[in-house]
């Protein structure tokens, strides 16, 4: 049987034919193998590009490029291997037939590339494609052999030819399966491609030389036989290999560049998705920061904005404005007797009842706890009194709580603009003074601000003077320490220093009673410096007792962040106490950072350069900007207790806390949850990878004398949650 001049016969004709003995140039055979291996590697890479291409046009281009590279590589291997073929007769090649063999193998390679590009490839697809590709490669080989022109006659053994075709089909199937393997595992397989490519190169060469093994060449008796060694065969083979290699390497370079570009696009998409999620978290935080989740009324922050706008408008129109502070009488008794759920229901009912009495232009806000504030445009005291009495009368209507009918009352304090003040702060202060007077007068009452109430301002002035003296003489001010539990180690690793004032007449005062006085009168920096020095000194004292790895967190006032001397004050406190900077942590609030973020950024970078850690306190309650948050030199983020207190009762708070923890960990920040008071809160925080907790569940703030004993023998959570710190004998402070 003849095809393209090829003769397929099991036996040679018996008519005076001489069988030629042919050999191969070993170096060119090795070169052909290397070209085939590089073509295989290139095919694997191109297959990835085809599979990962998003646009049809892009996938089509990669298919054609991959087909040209794979087909050209196989054809180059075949041609170099034919140059390695040495026979004792002169051999030439027919160019059109040789070119046809190249077209055939490129077409077969195109089938392979389109198979790689299918979104899902089934087993039947692999088999059909392998059959088409293998037959195409075999056709290329024997078409190339048909291009031989010499005096010798070529005979092919059909059985060996069939074996070579089977080898081509098997090699094609192996290539398809390997490509599918690399496509599904796009990362971490680059080294595996090398042995796979060598195996593919060997398979392709095996097919070629199996086909050569089927060849027998004969010449008539009497033909002059002389081994024709083409002097330029090696050079031609090397040249072809170099050209093919350069083309394949260029294609690999293009594929590598496209892979990097696609990787960057994926990274950019990931970053954009992360930023979108962070923006959603920001929107949620802003919503929580502006509105009370329980009553859906504006909170203190939103109220301050409304108040400023209304005050400016009334000042321009020279119109009176009433500021009313409302407080539910004996609200704590409802919480204690009927439970917090009943207390929450009461707050919602009160908010709705007060809102029903007000006009559309009036504003009501929940400032916290059972405290509400109303802004109403009124012309006189009589109108303000009438509105307050309607609110009080509405409040007296029975309310069903926990299956019981209860009657609640409210106390109201009122200040009027412009008679009782011309600023928001002043009017709120005077309304609060009036509310205090109303509650002191027996509750279920209303009271207007009067000169009589200014005696309290005098008292505040006296408090300021006494606080100044307490700082100057170092008398009366004390530090309590609240432990912070590391949820990973189960040990108390930090303490938060909390200042108290043991007033000679008023007793132990919490910081909210005198911090505002210090800030308002310009000596908050002095108070912060005292707290910082005392905390460092107490930490050194604990180190002397063996607690060398314990750290202390010290709060920093917002006003103090505007003082460049703060970094020097921190350094002096560390040097005087002899403790390592890594054991000190400075806590600042969101609003303190955002009020002057650029100045705060420079100052905090200086402090962090000393080795001191920086944490952001009360996160979620202020004007936090995620754009600035990632720029600030922060180590820790403290979730405000307002988000923790209603867990697990509040699904919204749980989502917010979970989002804050995820965001903080994304920014490589540790997370401390404040105000943890129940085991349910602890379990929730631990399950969502919170790093630290702080709250009454662990311990109330304790004086220095009691804190060492607590650290040795914690009893707040039990041994299953807290491990005692064992003092050691020798370590630097």
Characterization of this structure:
It is a single chain. 55% of the residues lie in helices and 16% in strands. It has 733 residues and is an alpha/beta fold. It has three domains: 21-258, no CATH class; 300-449, Alpha-Beta Plaits, CATH 3.30.70.270; 463-712, EAL domain (TIM Barrel, Alpha-Beta Barrel). The termini are far apart. Residues 724-732 have low confidence and may be disordered.
Provide a quick synopsis of the model.
The protein contains 23 helices and 26 strands.
* Helix segment tally: 23
Biggest pleated-sheet summary: 8 strands, mixed, barrel
Q: From the 3D coordinates, which CATH architecture of the largest domain would you assign? A: Alpha-Beta Barrel
* CATH topology description of the largest domain: TIM Barrel
**Uncertain segments:** 724-732
Q: Can you count the beta strands?
A: 26
Shape assignment: elongated
Topology:
Elements: E1 2-3, E2 6-8, E3 17-19, E4 23-24, H1 26-52, H2 56-84, E5 85-86, E6 92-93, H3 95-116, H4 123-146, E7 148-149, E8 153-156, H5 158-184, H6 190-213, E9 215-220, H7 233-290, H8 300-317, E10 321-328, H9 331-338, H10 340-357, E11 363-368, E12 371-376, H11 381-395, E13 399-401, E14 404-406, E15 410-417, H12 424-440, E16 446-448, H13 455-473, E17 477-486, E18 491-503, E19 507-509, H14 515-520, H15 524-544, E20 551-555, H16 566-577, E21 584-589, H17 590-595, H18 597-609, E22 613-619, H19 626-629, E23 636-639, H20 641-644, H21 651-666, E24 670-673, H22 679-687, E25 692-693, E26 702-703, H23 704-712
Parallel strand pairs: 2-8, 15-16, 18-20, 20-21, 21-22, 22-23, 23-24, 24-25
Antiparallel strand pairs: 1-2, 3-9, 4-5, 6-7, 8-9, 10-12, 10-15, 11-12, 13-14, 17-18, 17-25, 17-26, 18-19
Helix pairs in contact: 1-2, 1-5, 1-6, 1-7, 2-3, 2-4, 2-7, 3-4, 4-5, 5-6, 7-21, 9-10, 10-11, 15-16, 16-18
């Amino acid at each position: 049987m003849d095809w393209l001049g090829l003769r397929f016969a099991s036996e040679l004709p018996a008519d005076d034919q001489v069988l030629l003995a042919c050999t191969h140039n070993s170096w060119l055979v090795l070169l052909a193998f290397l070209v085939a291996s590089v073509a295989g590697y290139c095919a694997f890479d191109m297959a990835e590009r085809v599979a990962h291409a998003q646009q049809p046009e892009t996938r089509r281009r990669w298919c054609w490029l991959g087909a040209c590279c794979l087909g050209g590589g196989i054809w180059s291997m075949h041609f170099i291997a034919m140059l390695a073929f040495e026979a004792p007769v002169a051999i030439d090649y027919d160019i059109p037939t040789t070119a046809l063999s190249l077209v055939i193998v490129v077409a077969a390679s195109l089938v392979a590339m389109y198979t790689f590009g299918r979104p899902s490839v089934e087993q039947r697809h692999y088999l059909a494609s392998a059959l088409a590709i293998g037959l195409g490669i075999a056709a290329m080989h024997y078409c190339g052999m048909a291009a031989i022109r010499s005096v010798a006659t070529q005979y092919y053994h059909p059985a060996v030819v069939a074996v070579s075709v089977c080898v081509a089909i098997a090699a094609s199937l192996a290539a398809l399966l390997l490509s599918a393997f690399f496509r599904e595992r796009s990362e971490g397989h680059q080294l595996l491609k090398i042995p796979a490519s060598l195996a593919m190169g060997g398979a392709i060469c095996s097919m070629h030389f199996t086909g050569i093994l089927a060849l027998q060449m004969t010449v008539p008796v009497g033909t002059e036989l002389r081994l024709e060694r083409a002097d330029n065969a090696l050079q031609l083979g090397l040249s072809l290999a170099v050209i093919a290699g350069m083309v394949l390497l260029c294609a690999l370079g293009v594929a590598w560049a496209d892979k990097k570009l696609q990787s960057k696009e994926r990274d950019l998409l990931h970053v954009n998705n992360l930023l979108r999620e962070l923006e959603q978290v920001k929107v949620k935080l802003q919503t929580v920061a502006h509105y009370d989740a329980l009553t859906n009324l504006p909170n203190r922050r939103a109220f301050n904005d409304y108040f400023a706008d209304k005050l400016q408008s009334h000042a321009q129109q020279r119109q009176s404005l009433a500021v009313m502070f409302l407080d539910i009488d004996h609200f704590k008794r409802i919480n204690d007797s009927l439970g917090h759920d009943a207390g929450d229901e009461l707050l919602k009912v009160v908010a709705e009842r007060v809102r029903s009495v007000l006009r559309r232009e009036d504003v009501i806000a929940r400032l916290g706890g059972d405290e509400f504030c109303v802004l109403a445009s009124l012309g006189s005291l009589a109108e303000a009194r009438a509105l307050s009495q309607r609110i009080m009368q509405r409040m007296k209507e029975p309310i069903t709580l926990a299956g019981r009918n209860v009657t609640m009352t409210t106390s109201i304090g009122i200040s009027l603009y412009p008679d009782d003040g011309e600023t928001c702060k002043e009017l709120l202060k005077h309304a609060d003074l009036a509310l205090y007077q109303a509650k002191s007068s027996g509750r279920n009452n209303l009271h207007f601000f009067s000169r009589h109430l200014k005696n309290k301002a005098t008292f505040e002035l006296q408090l300021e003077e006494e606080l100044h003296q307490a700082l100057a003489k170092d008398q009366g001010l004390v530090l309590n320490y609240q432990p912070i539990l590391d949820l990973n180690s189960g040990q108390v690793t930090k303490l938060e220093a909390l200042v108290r004032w043991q007033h000679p007449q008023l007793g132990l005062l919490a910081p909210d009673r005198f911090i505002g006085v210090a800030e308002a009168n310009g000596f908050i920096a002095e108070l912060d410096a005292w707290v910082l020095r005392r905390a460092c000194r107490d930490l050194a004292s604990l180190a002397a007792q063996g607690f060398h790895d314990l750290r202390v967190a010290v709060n920093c006032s917002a006003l103090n962040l505007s003082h460049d001397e703060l970094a020097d004050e921190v350094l002096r406190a560390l040097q005087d106490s002899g403790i390592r900077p890594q054991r000190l942590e400075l806590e600042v609030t969101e609003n303190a950072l955002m009020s002057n973020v650029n100045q705060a950024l420079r100052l905090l970078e200086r402090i962090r350069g000393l080795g001191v850690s920086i944490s952001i306190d009360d996160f979620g309650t202020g004007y936090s900007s995620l754009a600035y948050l990632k720029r600030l030199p922060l180590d820790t983020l403290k979730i405000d207790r307002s988000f923790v207190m209603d867990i697990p009762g509040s699904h919204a708070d749980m989502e917010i806390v979970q989002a804050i923890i995820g965001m903080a960990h994304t920014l490589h920040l540790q997370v401390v949850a404040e105000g943890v008071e129940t085991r349910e809160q602890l379990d929730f925080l631990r399950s969502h990878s919170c790093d630290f907790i702080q709250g009454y569940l662990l311990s109330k703030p304790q004086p220095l004398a009691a804190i060492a004993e607590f650290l040795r023998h914690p009893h707040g959570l039990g041994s299953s949650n807290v491990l005692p710190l064992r003092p050691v004998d020798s370590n630097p402070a």
